[in-house]
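input
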Amino acid sequence: MINNKLIRLSAPFVIFAGVSWMLWLYNQYFLWIFPAYGMIAIWFSMFRADMNQTNSQTQEKEIKFVFIFLATAIGFVLPRIAPLGHPVESALLSFGEVAALWALFYALSLAQNRSQAGADRLRTGAAEYAGRARALEGEMKMYDEHIGALRERIKFQAGLSASIHTLSSCTTSEEIKARLSDMLKNQFPGVTAELESGAPSDFLADWVAQRKIPLLVRNSAEENRLSADVFAEGQRSLVIVPLNLFGAITGFIRLVSPEPNRFATPDLRTLEIISTIATVSMENIYMFEKVQELAIKDGLTGLYTHRAFQTRIEEEVLRAARTKVPFSLIMTDIDHFKGYNDTYGHQAGDSVLKAVARELSESVRDIDFTARYGGEEFAVILTGVGKTEAAAVAEHIRKSLEGRRFSFNGKVTNVTASFGVAEFPAEAAISSQLVRAADERLYKAKHSGRNRVIYE
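output
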């Protein structure tokens, strides 16, 4: 294909000039030389004008018709100047030559136009298919992005599910904190993850606590909500999320990175979800422990229940039998408690029960066991203590109660209690015998004038 425009346009001039010169020199061979003008049409049919250049296409068409017009003029004029024989015969022959030349030009132009139209259709089809291909590429790219987003979402949800399972399987708050710390390190590698308990430790935590909202700082150098002085060295990007336990802030989760723009909104959302899971798990543990505590502790006095006492005394019997170390049991009963209820009301009676329970708890060691045995009767297990020492403890409690004053409806009064003490294994072989022995001495103290300790 000839693409040089100068050659494409100058070659027809050369062909026209050469044929015209041959006709001038050898006009007697007009009928043989004149058809050579057809080479101009053949030349133009050898290439297509650039369809993107309208001026070039129009220019080539004009030149083509100029040449055919000149050739036609020569075909009609030259035979008259140089007769070729019989005038009519030469005129018909020259007309035939010109008509054949026009037919050739027309046929070649028609073929060229059809070829050009076919090429245009192919080009249009190719452009259409190229557009469809680009559209498909765009859709494939969007599909790949969608698949990637779905995979990330599935990965996040799988991690979230694992986090829920991990935290919900914890049985203590300390275990939750340990697993939460590991989870933060795995979820946010390369950053400093801190779990803070209690009151805010710095201005940033205090800012979160006052507003009760999380704080996300993408770049501390560009942060306009806070002064640059509140950021420590290496705190270029950070996230702080509060830990809300039963509606109250009990701590914070803090992520810190020395790299700016390390954290973004998705990281904040992830941390909020983790914080919510952790706090819900802590609340569940607290509620479970509370339910267990209510099952073994008396709701009014806070002491252990009769059922918990039965379990503990069996454990002490087994321990004493194994270690050969004795323990003692104190049984006590408030004197004239029914009279307090009848005289001052049940609220006054509840106050007395609470005061006696507090006195018992404060008078024994942490390793000892205090329970509300039933009604106004209490039991104290003193581990590793003989009955003589236990009697001294009971006497101390008796004196403390005797010296305490209560005010009911403007009247000041006091309460007393009677005590019975027994020792295992010196006075009993099993737990029920020990309880019976202590209870009998309590009964004896009641019938001996009350407000006393009996241990023999």
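quick obs: DSSP finds 13 helices and eleven strands in the chain.
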